Amino acid sequence: MEIWQAIVVGIVQGLAEFLPISSSGHIVLTQFLLGMRPFAEGEANDIVFEVILHLGTLMSVLAYFWRRLWNMTRSLWTKELEEDRRWIWLLGLATLPAVVLVITPIKFATDAVTGESEKVTLGDVFERAYDNPVVVSCLLLVTGALLLAPRIIRIKHRKLGWVGALAMGIGQAIAILPGISRSGSSITAGLISGVDPKKAAEFSFLMSIPAIVGAVVFKLDEFKEKFTPETMAPYLAGALSAFIVGVLAVALVMTAIRRGKFQYFAYYCFAAGISGILYFSFAG
């Protein structure tokens, strides 16, 4: 991987992680277009690089919402910050669906060579979609439909509680599928549950913190293997570009939410999904 390729993918990650257009889907399609991800089935892809890009966007969240995060930390010993303290356990609740998806086995597969039994989770099944750019493009269409759902399903605004947090957590969990936007599906779930748009967006971005930290923990063994002096430069270049662009993307989404323009991203998802289907159906 060249440094310029890492920077391009980092820019895509920074934009698509927070804009409700699916970072995983756009990274997959960008890597296919740049020749970084093979069309051949069964060839390994650099999952560690993708996790490092997410670390870059994690820093974007920490930088943009530092005041809210500081108040949440202070709430642990300050009685007056009850709302911030309540958000801590709501974030924990919202993280549970993704954890269940990743660790709960749905079957045990037996290796034909070694004869060893291997646990297969629903998350593993979802990740297989990364190998098919046409499927990813189709899922971008699903994201577009999700973004339009709040215009059809209208619920009276209510305070963010356990129902809204759990619904947003389920939205985040299904975004393991490449092409389903994490921010788009979780914010949409919040809006449909009646959560105030600004609060839903802020809570969605904060939900990414435990999700990214968890992904890093699960990939620690691969980190030790792949984070070498040879890969360090492109990895860090990609993470830095993701961080810088990510801060701008968070600000853009918060502005769109305040102005009631959130659903406009749906039209982009439809255009990107249809273009991907047409292009990758005849490529490679």
| Number of separate strands | 2
**Tally of distinct domains:** 1
Question: Helix proportion of residues, in percent?
Answer: over 70%
The main sheet comes to:
2 strands, antiparallel
Helix segment tally: 13
User: Which spans have pLDDT < 50 for at least 5 consecutive residues?
Assistant: 39-44
Q: Spatial order of the strands in the main sheet?
A: 1-2
**What characteristic shape results from the CA principal axes?**
globular
Helix-strand topology string: HHHHHEEHHHHHHHH
Structural class: mainly alpha
Average pLDDT confidence is 84
Strand content: under 5%
Description:
The protein has 284 residues and is mainly alpha-helical. It has one domain. It has helices spanning 3-18, 23-33, 47-64, 66-74, 82-103, 122-127, 133-152, 162-174, 182-192, 197-218, 220-226, 229-258, 265-282; strands at 105-110, 117-121. The longest helix is centred in the last third of the chain and has 30 residues, at 229-258. The protein is globular, with a radius of gyration of 19 Å. It starts with a helix and ends with a helix.
What is this structure, in a nutshell?
With 284 residues, the protein is mainly alpha-helical. The protein has one domain (3-282). It has helices at 3-18, 23-33, 47-64, 66-74, 82-103, 122-127, 133-152, 162-174, 182-192, 197-218, 220-226, 229-258, 265-282, and strands at residues 105-110, 117-121.
